[in-house]
Amino acid sequence: MCAGASSLALAAPAPSEPPALLLGAAWYPEQWPEDVWEHDLALMEAAHIHLVRIGEFAWSRMEPREGDWQWDWLDHAIALAAKHHMKVLLGTPSAAPPAWLTQKYPETLRVSNAGVRDEHGNRQQFSFISARYRALTHGLTERMAVRYGHNPTIVGWQIDNELAEPSFDPEAHKAFHAWLQHKYGTIENLNQKWWTSYWSQTYSDFGQIPVHDAEENPALLLNWKQFVTDTWVSYVRNQTAPIRQHAQPAQFITTNTMGWFDGFDGYTLHQSLDLVGWDDYETDWTDNAARHDLARGYKNKNFWVTETDPGFVNWRPNNLAHDKGEVRALAWQAVGHGADAVEYWQWRAALNGQEQYHGVIAGADGNPAPIYAEIQTLGAEFEKAAPALQGTSPHAQVALLHDMPSRWAISFQKQVEDFNPVKALTAFYGPLRHRAGTVDVVSPRQNLASYKLIVAPGLNVLPQETAEHLLEWVRQGGHLLLGPRSGMKNAENALDPHLQPGPLAPFLGAHVSQFYGLVQPVPLSLAQKQGKGTLWAETLEPTDPATQTEGTYGPSNGWLDGQPVAVSHQVGKGKITYLSTIPDAATLDAYITTQVRDAGALSPFADLPADIEACLRTGMDHTVLVLINHAKTPVTFTLPQPAAGRDLLDIKQVASGQITLPGYGVRVLTLPNPA
């Protein structure tokens, strides 16, 4: 047993089993005197909150001086949570090292891309590569795991908080050079793969390679991002290792990622974690849906929303409150997309610090904020619906490929200022979600066997092995829709001399002969629509008489005039289609509708009004349908025949036919599975 650990921490009473669907809040007992803790927890319990996250910023309270471990306060906080029938998600506090640590060990502080070392006073000011910092965080986590690893109140562990920026310190330089040497073996091999003869960049030693993310060789930039990913993976494993060693296996391990954050590859990072957690601060409901599906796609399983705001944030240019009822609607949206827990940040307003203006459930005085009643209603609804939701999850017939190397490669070289690879991705997501229902946002390297249609809006980096993986799926009957800029680069972020879409060109029966960045849209006809191509367009040249063309460009720059907008080709039992632009929203919706229908993946809810979202979670013997009106005003619509069932919130039967949902209204129905 580690020094400072004690079996006394195991004396907390076992709480009653919480619901399968958890409502939670971030609680910071270290910021408040102990005589107010009971009041806070009683208010939470009255709001049907069954989960608190604690500890993730409390290192200076746990270890106020080096080696001076203080656990009594945390023991007491966990015991009080158990008394109020709550589970605890325990955070490791490595995101905010104490002042004594950064003063004594300044080498643990992060160095920016500009070469400036961070100072104490914020958070995430540590170097993710620092051996000293890793030793200190490992020791801290080990003490926590020994002390709380068998405490029945602890449901799981959150590693750090919102992993973010890399460090460019000397240790990072040395580690990157070693990483490159391990990958390439010789500097001659690296020079050849990176094409360093361009601009006389040829290296004679790995130590000569610069370490920063400015506009450098595209291969260097991609390798740096991959190194950063691997370094964050090892940083996380440095803390998961002692938890795996000392804690009971029932305590899961997660971290809280940030939606479309591009600092590392989330698919790689989550391989060593048990559960995906993500922090949801999005306001647009369609983009929010995509982020939920991204979180679910990391491990192809249900996830937790580890943070979301109870009304508003404080870090945008304009921090506006959600409408009344919208917080509840967004929570149910998370559940519909596969969340088994929704946690609010934070419970109570901090008296000082950088987030004083952030939305809370209880004010600085400890009394309920206006949003409390809405949270209380939501908590009661979660309790009602939890038994039916247990063991259910979304199941998709359609996938959207989100490939981090491709996204990085396009971000490095946009060619058109407004070409945002995430916006390009979500442009396709919206109509896919509307027409196909459930959509998985997955990596091209995952198991794809369950999908009928896969859409890859910008699969820019396409290694041979990834192409073969996709081809095997197509041969078995899948329909692959590639978007513009696909198959342009190889694994080294170098142009593929075989032209787009690279290894897939022979099977497409066509290739891209030239690309054109667009500032002004160009006219096109596609899917019986007269529309516009935006941001990017390409000339497609069929090379096989069996290749079918779809749509044509109208007159614009001369190069595109009369050229096909899309081509498709049968491959085995399936087909590959290449769309050479991003059409305007209406045209893209029409085109995606044809693709979804042709693949046999059209949802029975495909014709619902634009602001109505239908989410399905399927279990062994039943399905739960979550219907949400994201509009401020009531919407009347027709439920298709399969939607007749029992309303879990009102406990009454709902027949198919006309239904009216009030503004931000929610219905949660349980339906029998088809025979």
Automatic annotation (TrEMBL):
InterPro entries given in the database record: Beta_galactosidase_C, Beta_galactosidase_Trimer, Class_I_gatase-like, GH, Glyco_hydro_42, Glyco_hydro_42_N, Glyco_hydro_b
Annotated Beta-galactosidase C-terminal domain residues: 616-670
CC annotations in GO: beta-galactosidase complex
EC number in record: 3.2.1.23
Record key words, sorted: Glycosidase, Hydrolase, Metal-binding, Zinc
Enzyme class: hydrolase
Reaction(s) catalysed (UniProt annotation): Hydrolysis of terminal non-reducing beta-D-galactose residues in beta-D-galactosides
GO molecular function: beta-galactosidase activity; metal ion binding
Binding site for substrate: R123, N161, W315
Catalytic residues identified in the record: E162 (proton donor), E307 (nucleophile)
Positions of the Beta-galactosidase trimerisation domain: 396-596
One Pfam family recorded for the sequence: Glyco_hydro_42C
Family affiliation: Belongs to the glycosyl hydrolase 42 family.
Protein name: Beta-galactosidase
Source organism: Acetobacter malorum
